[in-house]
């Protein structure tokens, strides 16, 4: 397997020896990305670093398991519907998504912005939820399951700021290998984002034209998720930060509040009311801060 594939399985829990056949089968499934829905054994071998004979055995096994579909006329394979059912089960079973999604939707609707929740996968971030309500049409749509680069995005940089030093160093080494020529500028931007998260609990990035995003880490037990808010705008990045950082931090605190409350009560989450104790407090603070200068 390639170095990238090995990295994905570097954090295996327990002491038992890893099942290499299972690992390689998962690596084959990971080779399928948007825009490459039909792949032959040769293309899969090139993407994964596995030999063609190994890939041939694995693809036949995955067809038999219902995870791949073979298209003989085009001599290729595509992901089978069973893969989508696994993804649906993941989303339906996510306690964090159940708590965050209604709160994210409320914020997105009220502010007419885009709000997302993501988690890491190797050296990329994967959207678990994305609610799009920006005033202006974005240059691209973002959907659940979509990947974005860790090193370029506010999502990824907020994640890097929150993981243990050993994990961060390993990820930065991996990114540096892929981004040799851009590394000096990227390293400086990532360091600045890490400092911003430590000082202000969020960081910002504008890696696409006229799109500014800010993100804050969402630590839940042993995992680090990331919430972000983005808007299509020509405003300066600091102006967007001043406008959206408060609502984003309030959202984070509200999600953590509801997770804790539901964990204590052991009951399902429900949609938040307009008098949500955390979001309401945040709104009151912002109203008071806006009134005070006028009173002076």
Q: How would you summarize the topology of this molecule?
A:
Layout: H1 3-8, H2 20-30, H3 41-48, H4 52-64, E1 68-71, E2 76-79, H5 81-92, H6 95-111, E3 114-121, E4 124-131, E5 147-149, H7 154-162, H8 165-178, H9 183-200, E6 203-208, E7 211-220, E8 223-232, H10 237-265, H11 277-295
Structure overview:
With 296 residues, the chain is α+β, with helices and mostly antiparallel strands. It is built from 11 helices and 8 strands. The strands form 2 sheets. Strands 5-4-3-8-7-6 form a 6-stranded antiparallel β-sheet. The N and C termini lie far apart (66 Å).
String of helices and strands:
HHHHEEHHEEEHHHEEEHH
Q: What is the global morphology?
A: globular
For the record, give the distance between the C-alpha atoms at the N and C termini, rounded to a whole number: 66 Å
Q: Count every helix, treating DSSP H or I runs of 4 or more residues as helices.
A: 11
Could you list some keywords that capture this structure?
disordered N terminus; six-stranded antiparallel sheet; globular; 18% strand
Quick recap of the structure?
The chain is of the alpha+beta class. The chain contains 11 helices and 8 strands. The strands form 2 sheets. A 6-stranded antiparallel beta sheet has the order 5-4-3-8-7-6.
């Amino acid at each position: 397997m390639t170095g990238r594939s090995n990295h994905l399985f570097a954090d295996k829990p327990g002491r038992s020896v890893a099942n290499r056949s299972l690992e390689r089968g998962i690596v084959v499934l990971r080779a399928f990305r948007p825009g490459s829905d039909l792949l032959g054994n040769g293309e899969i071998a090139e993407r994964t670093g596995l030999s063609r004979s190994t890939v041939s055995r694995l693809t036949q096994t995955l067809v038999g398991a219902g995870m791949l579909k073979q298209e003989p006329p085009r001599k290729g394979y595509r992901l089978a519907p069973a893969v989508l059912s696994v993804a649906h089960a993941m989303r339906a079973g996510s306690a964090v998504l159940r708590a965050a999604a209604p709160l994210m939707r409320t914020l997105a609707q009220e502010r007419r912005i885009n709000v997302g929740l993501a988690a890491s996968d190797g050296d990329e971030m994967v959207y678990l939820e994305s609610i799009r309500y920006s005033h202006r049409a974005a240059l691209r749509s973002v959907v659940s399951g979509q990947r974005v680069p860790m090193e370029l995005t506010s999502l990824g940089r907020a994640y890097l700021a929150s993981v243990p030093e050993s994990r961060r160093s390993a990820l930065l080494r991996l990114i540096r290998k892929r981004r040799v020529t851009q590394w000096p500028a990227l390293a400086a931007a990532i360091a600045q984002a890490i400092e911003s998260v430590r000082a202000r609990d969020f960081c910002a990035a504008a890696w696409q034209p006229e799109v500014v995003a800010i993100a804050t880490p969402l630590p839940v037990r042993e995992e680090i998720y990331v919430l972000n808010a983005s808007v299509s705008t020509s405003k300066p990045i600091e102006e967007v930060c001043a406008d959206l950082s408060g609502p984003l931090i309030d959202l984070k605190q509200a999600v953590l509040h509801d997770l804790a409350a539901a964990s204590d009560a052991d009951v399902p989450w429900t949609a938040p009311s307009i008098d949500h104790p955390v979001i309401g407090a945040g709104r009151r603070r912002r109203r008071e801060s806006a009134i005070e200068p006028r009173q002076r």
